Amino acid sequence: MTAGVIGHRIAGVLALLATLGVSTAMGQSLRTTHVEGPIWLISGAGGNVVVSAGDNGVLLVDSGSAEYSADLLQAIDDISDGTIRYIVNTRLHPDRVGGNAALRAAGDTFTGGNATQIGGVDVGAAVIGHENLLLRMVFDADFGIELQPTETFFVPRFDLYFNNEPVEVIYQPNALDDTNSIVHFRRSDVIAAGDVFRLDSWPYIDLENGGSIEGVLDALNDLLDIAIADTLSEGGTLIVPGHGRISDESDLLRYRDMVTIVRDRIRAWMDRGMSLDEIKQAEPAFEYDSRYGQGRDDWTTEMFVEAVYLSLSSPRR
Asked: What's the pTM value of the predicted model, to 2 decimals?
């Protein structure tokens, strides 16, 4: 793609962000990494963004935080001169849906065949998410209409064929909340896991919006059911977490086991009649705290332990 077209797209994104009152972070350094086949990872945009770039154009898994949209668009143009056709959102969170408006405006709806225009939907890329994502956005003033999905699904799996491979969007009910999905690129054998699997934090369980510890573990076990390891449990299916480096089944297994161990300790101590304060003092996650709980004020180890405790105390939703 020529520099003129790139500049035009970025200028358009900046103008749109200005109208939305969003400050930009132009000049930030985003890192682009080839994963497998047509699949790329762009990191540094608030959360990991997965890109499928090929003959059909560009499909994005998540859109990063709004302030990184111009830099993200530049990084996408560095990968491919194709048009952005789809944006799949894996969760309702600012670093998953924040760039929807700007990146959608930079793309065009994929029509297929000889169709070049469909009345009312020919402007902008399609944004795909579970229907709970749309319902939550409608009633949450923090997420404007310009960020909402244009296509939703309510069945367990939504699929499409793009860039010469099947793409499955698989809903994960009552995981971190009630909006989570994972995306499996079947020919490339790459999974975009969203925030149900991340290497920098405990699972962020949003109890008020349908999250549960059992749902998180169900999602992690679903990921393990899909992933297949290569030699000595290394390699094979590649998994892009919501935050952190590209992983494989063994990395996912260690994370799942960590969550299971902490859950089982808390449940065992609850069965013995220990209170929440007593369980916190007993430090059920002590050996993992240095990796997942340090340096985070927004989701501390104590917050995670309390969320697990309250989740186990309530009937599963």
From this structure: 0.89
